[in-house]
Amino acid sequence: MWSPEREAEAPAGGDPAGLLPPEWEEDEERMSFLFSAFKRSREVNSTDWDSKMGFWAPLVLSHSRRQGVVRLRLRDLQEAFQRKGSVPLGLATVLQDLLRRGELQRESDFMASVDSSWISWGVGVFLLKPLKWTLSNMLGDHKVPAEEVLVAVELLKEKAEEVYRLYQNSPLSSHPVVALSELSTLCAGSCPDERTFYLVLLQLQKEKRVTVLEQNGEKIVKFARGPHAKVSPVNDVDVGVYQLMQSEQLLSRKVESLSQEAERYKEEARRACRAGKKQLALRSLKAKQRTEKRIEALHAKLDTVQGILDRIYASQTDQMVFNAYQAGVGALKLSMKDVTVEKAESLVDQIQELCDTQDEVSQTLAGGVTNGLDFDSEELEKELDILLQDTTKEPSDLPDNPQERFYIDSVPNTKISDAELEAELEKLSLSEGGLVPSRKSPKRQLEPTL
């Protein structure tokens, strides 16, 4: 948590090595030209003017983005962009041009542009009363004092979006109302100083994503429910839920503190027993029991508060569901506005009539043209009977099963004579090398082998 006395400024001393343009170290003549002052008017030499402005304007904004700051001052930029003991003489003109183009805005002007009734709590931080009474008003709008704070408009929008996402992804988003102190602690890593944090809140309020209210001396912030939703004013329900949440946190802290106290009494009783101090140990145990009873009472209260919060969250969910149902019923009514049962039946009858008509047309087209191809049905029946008789008399040359045909082709022909078989066997025996067939063995017909 920041303290109001702390005021962090943008770091000075130059950019880290490697983040500056190449000519910063390599082109001495070019840098000498860029560090020189602008002419009084662009019309004198528009080429030189545009060249310098095209170099410094993007560099100023990119430097602020790398530093993670949205507030910048001329003095800080002069220190950051020192080179060999020299400072750029035209930075004031660059800032004036960025102000003219709307990429920068005076901090006081930005605050005045936000329609807010709670800026009064930031007066102690900004030290501006009234807001428009600034040094720039005394010197004129065309001069940029070295100490005046300027706001990078686009960088502030990016920082506001970052803070909003940080809140949405944190446990604090369980309820739209949070304490300002809790939110500042959550955003300490994103906002380098307290002023930036308040500027971010102002930007979020300008976008109608947050609103701030002071309740019993404590400032609370209410966020919009969705990224594209607009925040609604803080109402009594929001305040009541916030108070319940604060009570829950207070009771939880009290229970934790009493639990530590009970544990301490337990340790004292244990040490007293070891030292033989029985009475002291009993007193410590009695204190421990009293503390535990207080803890039980606080737990009962805490359960009651948590139960109420759960009911509130459930009712909010029920309300969202009810609103969704209601919107769905309304959309359904609009979509069925001109649809009736009678109209639906009439439409079905028309479709059926069209289908019948189409069937009649199709039958007419199919039977109306024969191209002279009229056949006698009795002759066709006789020809079919002849074909059936021929089929029953002549066996089919092909088997029904292809595997069966393969089996028949692979089996040797069994109608070969015995003499032919004997001759074939003798040839085989001779070719085997001296095996002579026996003439005395009885002749028998060889069976085919598979």
Sequence-ordered SSE layout with sheet pairings:
Blueprint: H1 23-26, H2 28-35, H3 46-67, E1 71-72, H4 74-80, H5 91-101, E2 104-106, H6 107-113, H7 123-126, H8 135-139, E3 150-152, H9 153-168, E4 177-179, H10 180-186, H11 194-206, E5 210-215, E6 218-223, H12 236-274, H13 278-335, H14 341-368, H15 377-393, H16 402-410, H17 418-431
Antiparallel strand pairs: 1-3, 2-3, 4-6, 5-6
Helix pairs in contact: 9-11, 12-13
Give a verbal description of the structure.
There is one protein chain. Helix 9 (153-168) crosses helix 11 (194-206) and helix 12 runs antiparallel to helix 13. Helix content is 60%, strand content 5%. The protein has 17 helices and 6 strands. The model is unreliable at 1-18, 120-141, 402-411 and 434-450 (pLDDT under 50). The protein has 450 residues and is mainly α. The strands form 2 sheets. A 3-stranded antiparallel sheet has the order 1-3-2. A 3-stranded antiparallel sheet has the order 4-6-5. The chain has helices spanning 23-26, 28-35, 46-67, 74-80, 91-101, 107-113, 123-126, 135-139, 153-168, 180-186, 194-206, 236-274, 278-335, 341-368, 377-393, 402-410, 418-431; strands at 71-72, 104-106, 150-152, 177-179, 210-215, 218-223. The longest helix is centred in the last third of the chain and has 58 residues, at 278-335. It comes from Moschus moschiferus (Siberian musk deer). Residues 1-22, 392-411, 430-450 are annotated as: Disordered. Belongs to the SNF7 family. Keywords: Coiled coil, Cytoplasm, Nucleus, Protein transport, Transport.
